[in-house]
Amino acid sequence: MSAPVITLDGPSASGKGTVAAMVALRLGFHYLDSGSLYRLAALYAVRHQIPLDNEAKLAMAAVRLPIAFRDGRVWLEDIDVTDEIRSEDIGLCASRIGALPALRSALLQRQRDFRHPPGLVTDGRDMGSVVFPDATLKVFLTASADERGRRRYKQLIGKGASANLQQIQQDIADRDERDAARPVAPLRQEPDARLLDTTRLTIDAAVDQVIEWYRAIAPRA
Ligand SMILES: Nc1ncnc2c1ncn2[C@@H]1O[C@H](COP(=O)(O)OP(=O)(O)O)[C@@H](O)[C@H]1O
Ligand SMILES: Nc1ccn([C@H]2C[C@H](O)[C@@H](COP(=O)(O)OP(=O)(O)O)O2)c(=O)n1
Q1: ipTM metric
Q2: Where on this chain does ATP bind (predicted)?
Q3: What pLDDT, on a 0 to 100 scale, did the predictor assign at position 66?
Q4: CATH number of 5-213: 1.10.1040.10, 3.20.20.80, 3.40.50.300, 3.90.1310.10?
Q5: How do the domains of the chain map onto residue ranges?
Q6: What is the pLDDT of residues 96-116, one digit of tens each?
Q7: Which of 14, 29, 150, 161 is most buried when burial is the number of CB atoms within 10 A of its CB?
Q8: Integer distance in angstroms from the first to the last C-alpha of the chain?
Q9: Can you give the pTM of this predicted structure?
């Protein structure tokens, strides 16, 4: 039997990555931040001047993207790009190339390869709908657009980056709109995903809720 999978999909800055990583830690599961793969592919394209609409070339590059995840850091072509891939610019580029079906297909197996015992927690846009349709628990994690803008603003300021709240809210809105409007693997709550609105929830409360749902399905976890 395949290892269990918990998927957290949802819009930008809803807390998916934070909650997913903490759930993985509490359960002793592996963790995959699928957005980082799209961000890495986007950064690779920028660095190698591959136009963001050259689907065939981007897909070819994505199949053998020279990346590594080590000690909580992310590497592209042996360069530590952990902070670089988090910029709003790269997020926007990731969203643009994420609309290309061939690029998505190229990343599909790479994502599935993260499924190992004792289990996997993963976050993104289509983890429950496309990548792991047989996931044990599927969550759609969201928060109000204002709250998400404030969270991303605080996160960037906390890292020492310069940020403008209004600009960030606009970028997030644009990105969500593009991610939701694309014909392939759009961002949306699927009927089999449970809704978790964290607008007024602490991070710990959100983590507790996911674990409670999971334990109700897998009591021995
Ligand atoms: N429930 C919450 N309450 C307050 N802040 C949160 C909550 N969940 C996440 N955050 C914060 O919001 C920011 C964005 O979270 P992140 O996990 O990066 O979101 P996503 O992966 O959905 O883009 C982080 O700084 C995180 O600490
Ligand atoms: N499973 C995924 C994950 C990310 N993407 C695309 C669409 C997103 O706007 C970008 C960046 O994703 P990421 O999860 O890192 O972004 P946020 O942290 O939620 O702001 O990549 C995707 O299309 N499918």
Answers
A1: 0.98
A2: 10-18
A3: 96
A4: 3.40.50.300
A5: 5-213
A6: 999 999 999 999 999 999 999
A7: 14
A8: 16
A9: 0.96
E strand residue ranges, 77-182: 79-80, 120-124, 137-142
- 169 Cβ below 6 A of ligand 1: no
Q: Which residue puts its alpha carbon closest to atom 13 of ligand 2? A: 35
Reply yes or no on whether the pLDDT at 146 is more than 80.
yes
Q: How far, in Å, CA of 4 to CA of 118, rounded?
A: 7
Ligand 1 neighbourhood includes 124 CB (under 6 angstroms):
no
- Whether 94 lines ligand 2, by a CB cut-off of 6 Å, is yes
- CA 192/CA 161 separation, integer angstroms: 38
Q: What ligand 2 atom has the least distance to the C-alpha of 92?
A: 9
Percent over 70 (pLDDT), the chain: 100
Which ligand 2 atom minimizes the distance to the CA of 111?
1
Cα(51) to centroid(ligand 1), Å: 31
The pLDDT tens digits of the residues spanning 31-63 come to 999 999 999 999 999 999 999 999 999 999 999
Q: In the structure encoding, which two tokens stand for residue 140, read together?
A: 């759609």
